[in-house]
Amino acid sequence: MALFSNRQEEEVLLENLAMLLEAGVGVTSALESISPQLRNTKIKKVISRIQFDLDSGFPLWKSFEKTGLYSQRVISLMRIGEKSGKLVENLELISQQSQKERSFQSQVQAALFYPLIVFSLTIIVGLGVSWFVLPRLAGVFSSLEIDLPWITKALLALGSFLQSYGAVAVPVLATATAAAFYFLFFFPKTRKVGEAILLAIPGFRNLLLEVEISRFGNLLGGLLQAGIPIDDALVSLRDATLLDPFAKFYEHLQKQVAEGNSIKKGFSSYPSAKKIFPAPVQSLIFAAEQSGQLPGSLVRIGRLFEERSSNTARGVTTALEPIMLFLVWLGVATVAIAVILPIYSLIGGFNP
Predict the structure, then answer these.
(1) Is residue 296 domain-shared with residue 340, that is, in the same domain?
(2) Where do transmembrane segments lie in this chain (predicted)?
């Protein structure tokens, strides 16, 4: 089993190629040195095809394009890098952007998966208690012949249900939950619903917006600095974004720029621009466009919001900890009360 996925090894290929070329190694020799380090057979075959195309006279960017593994953004940076003599710099830019993309994804995943893991463990423990412990308590309480509180009756009914149908109900519930999670957050045609849910939660909304603005600044600014035309850079930005509201905005902005309009015009003609880009950020972009310093200003915006998103991710995790602890406490307290109340009633019945 490979230690890296295809996507990770594709990025490793470019990162190592940039380092070797910077050290003065030739392209063919660099590819020959990289291939033995990779574990994925598919990527090794890709390198062999690239070497064959290079020997046949194709430029490097065309050889990579023929593999079909890399986005148009990567191919464009390689093509411009070869033509301008800045191939190493552009390959390093690709590596930096890939690293930032992994950082953005890890921030969002950490904020999402922490409560998910805690909540899942709480559900598993709760089901275990309800399935194996509560049915035994039901036998004890029924032999005491006392009037049980409603909370005890509800939990005992749940335990009885799981004892009778748990072997079917629990797998069905787990499958339904996993399917709902997949369709909400991963399935392309329905993940907009999951995005809308996350954007409606204040902490997650701030995190997602900051991540996307950071991606906007770093990616668009980096592409413009490398010499990519702005309309092509906006297409790459649209393909890279994870949120549908931003993808729609980038598509609108790209059409405006392609028609000869300014970025300011593209922002002002999009009704929801103020909802996803703060007014100070827009003002900075407009001023930079007017002064001809747009690429550098975008990169600075990206760095600023990259730091903000890191702080927000830590803040979201910190804020969720007491909420998760309260939910765990609530579950434990519910079971404890359901068990203690009948015992308290029984002790009270013994008193004269």
Answers:
(1) yes
(2) 112-134, 154-187, 323-347
Please state the pTM of the whole predicted model.
0.75
Name which of 172, 175, 196, 173 is nearest 184 in CA terms. Answer: 196
Token pair, residue 230, equals 């702005």
Structure tokens at 339: 């068990």
Query: Do 36 and 112 lie in a common domain?
Result: no
C-alpha 158/C-alpha 338 separation (Å) is 12
* Whether residue 56 is found in the same domain as residue 130: no
* In a domain? residue 83: no
Distance CA 326, CA 322 (A): 6
Tell whether 194 is covered by a domain: yes
Buried b (16+ CB within 10 A) or exposed e, 220-249: bbbbbbbbbebeebbbbbbebbbbebbbeb
Domain around 58: 6-70
Name the amino acid, one letter, at 350.
F
Rounded distance between C-alpha atoms, residue 281 and residue 195, angstroms: 23
Q: Over 70: is that where the pLDDT of 351 sits?
A: no
Same domain? 57 vs 106: no
HSE at residue 241, side-chain half, CA atoms within 13 A, is 26
Q: Could you tell me which residues come within 8 angstroms of residue 65 by beta carbon, excluding any fewer than 6 positions away?
A: 75
As a whole-number percent, the residues of the chain with pLDDT over 90 amount to 17
pLDDT of residue 349: 52
Q: Is the pLDDT of residue 283 over 90?
A: yes
Q: How many domains does the chain have?
A: 2
Residues 154 and 206 in one domain: yes
In-domain check, residue 115: yes
| Residues 54, 105 within the same domain | no
- Residue 226, φ and ψ in degrees, nearest 5: -80, -5
Which of 14, 48, 70 terminates a domain? The answer is 70
Cβ count near 314 (within 10 Å): 13
